[in-house]
Amino acid sequence: MAENKNEYSVEYGDPVGMIAAQSVGEPGTQMILRSFHLAGIESTISTSGLPRIIELVDAKKKPSTPITYIYLDGKIGKDFDKATETLKKINEVRMSSIAKRILENFSKGKIKVVLDKQELESEGITIKQVAAKIDKALNLESKVEDNGVVVNMHTRNLKEIRAATINIMKMLVSGVDGAGKATIRRDDKTGEFYLVSAGSNIEGIMQVEGVDKERTTTNDVFAIYRLFGIEAARNALAFELKKTLKEQKISVDERHLNLIADAMTASGSIKGVGRHGLSGEKHSVFARAAYEETLKHLIHAAAFGEVDPMRGVTENILVGKQIPIGTGSVKLAIKKEDMAKIKPASHK
Amino acid sequence: MIVSDKQKSYVYMNGKVVGTVQDPVSLVNEIRSARRKGMLSGEVNVSFNEKLNSVNINTDRGRIRKPYVILENGQPKLTKDLIEKLKSKEINFNYLLRNGIVEYLDAEEEENALVALSEKDITERHTHLEVDISSIFGFTINTSPYPEHNSLARHAMLANFTKQAQGLYATNFNQRFDSRAYVLFYPQRPIVTTAAYDTVKMPRHPSGQNFVVALSTYYGYNMADAIVINRAAVDRGLGRSMFYKTYADEERRYPGGQRDRFKVPPPTADGYMGEHVYSKLSEDGIIEPEMEVSEGDALIGKVAPPRFLEENLGAGGLEEKMRDDTAVLKTGERGVVDSVVFTESTGATKIVKVRIRSLRIPENGDKFASRHGQKGVVALIVPPEDMPFTADGIVPDLLLNPHSIPTRLTFGHLLETLGGKAGAINGELVDGTAFSEAGSDRIENYGKTLESHGFERYGNEVLYDGMTGMPFKSTIFNGVVYYNRLYHMVSNKIQVRSRGKVQILTHQPTEGKARQGALRFGEMERDALIGYGASLLLKERLLDQSDKAVVLVCKECGSLGYYDHIKKTMVCPLTKTTDFVEVEISYAFKVLLDEIRSLHIMTSIKLNE
To answer: Is the ipTM beyond the 0.90 threshold?
Structure first.
């Protein structure tokens, strides 16, 4: 591409936005027709295809299936056991997943958490640790019994006991809050071990020892925006768009997707393309009124005495003017009337 | 699982619990044997659902049921003896039902049955025998030939095409006044027929003709579902049909004692269309049969009272003011008045129905379809001398592109071609019922017939190029296929416009054939021009060729002014200035400004320069 890049460069007045929209929109119609799934775990746990594109373009605050790819520091990444250790530090375990049953004794004011020994073993947690966690969270003392933990509430208040039960069930036993369930993977090419977790708290994950902060990434664009800023968010957005289309075996020139990502992040924050984002922030009253919520925009314009600058496409088509795009984007440098004032050059 | 008590099963009668039972199987068996003995109605169905541990008895309406031959000790109760008696009409089907030889099962009882497809498939576990293998298909599929050789998608298409086929839809079509009717001239019954097709008496009102079809290209004229047909065949009546359309009108009565009147409207009538329009009407205001009519000709002359009551007392009231409400032949239509009917409705108002007939000879763009979901549009009507022909001098009626077959998986089409050819040569009907023979046996049988008459056994023949007389390098597969002419015909759809009517509200061109409309340059077309950057072309489409309007804009206040033709001045509704600029805008924008102003929002146009 480098040798004939001039052939591919846009010219002044090219409607790049419209071309980008058409270039993405046309293959997008095919995506509805076939729900294409790649073989593999990634595509089965994460949303892909059209729903994912909509999610990105609408700038949803939280992806429906957040995923974090956690890479590990050099040596840890090579060693399966060390990688598993890091996994246990990250993997989010809630009490509800390791508790077999939870028994409330309202007459004695006690709560007994019966733990699943197999689960405990596989997560690498001891009963004592669980008891300590409960003590810390509820500021109480609990006893370890043969297969669980007994908490003495020192009260027989029904409401308090039930509230405590719910708290215990929701309690984080180990791992990073919001990291989600993590699994270990092996890169087939390099043989390196890395982690994949179903959450997007990259801030928390990166504080864990042994995590490579430079390579760890997530599909949650907003998480990246919060941690790294708008430039990184733009790159993440463009990357996710490209990845989703590539998964569907749809080839769209990446510059169209870059343009979309640019437009969505140009303001310094991430904006969706719809009514509450780009389309709703057009300068032209007519262009906004032509899209959605016609009356809202007209009334607002009336109340604030808005003036339409008439610089966009939609509003110029509406009134019947030539659009300021393509052949309509150029004007004469000298007015016709002024031409007469110019004296012909003498050739003496 | 709903039922926890494994000992007892619930018994449902038409969906409601009526009790429990210890031994559900024997209950079901008892009810069944009672039904077979005729002690219970044959419409009762009973089944045991093992999963839900429930007995379901159904006697209500709305269940789809299907007949099966009952098996007893691995032997069908319908014996050879009984079949002979059926053939000799000694007994009938009801006899079989009454005597527990055949029974109807509903969807639920079918779950308890194991049905053998044919007698040789019967094992000890089977409880029923299919009446015929083809009954695993429904009616629609069974009326098509060789359905087991076509894909389901094509069957779905065939079901649609069958509805659209022209044919002999009713033998009394001459007496009927359907709003639209299509009658094929020489309908034929298909050579390749099926048992179901004959059973429902379809041959009595056929909807197609047997075409001689060659699977051949023709200079690219039958690419992509186009077909080439032989002009000689068309001239001899192939696919020829008559289109009937009925115009109806009545003398309506209105409150106040006024009513419509059938008569030639007087020139004084409001909306009088000119003398030439009514010239074909007879004295009573109705057109005569066998009159040739074309678009714009009056068919039923009628005057109606004015739409709004006016104070007509002052005018003397001698001459009643009437409005012309004549039925006129629609644009693009022509034909001959076939029949006129004068009658009265239950409300004692006079009704007139005029049926127009017009001949529809196949032409470019008319749609045809075979019975395999293979549709095509006529792209070329070839003079007979240019058509390919066989050594016997047979010229095909239709040339079908061979590429139509493999991707659509309609091998039934090929079988019908072969079967139709064998049947036509032998002068016999050919059975194309599903599974009546193995596909390979069919090919061999037809091959034998063809060979006995001196044809190639697989239906291939040397064809000669009509233009050069030279034989084609390859032999060409040909035979006889039943084709339907579908009612989508260009002459009913064709429409042209360069300039024409516009809508009153927006001043934009009208839409639709009935209103002489234009084709819409829509949003996506607009996007294409924006994407190309063709700004002036876009403006021409959307403004100059559409709703261009020149308005006066007040230089002082920016509101729209107007020209007062009496005072001969330009007027601004707000200021007293006469300083205006003429501006070209779309009329739709003018309407928008009007509507915004009607919301009490002031608009003003600021102009540059």
So the answer is: no
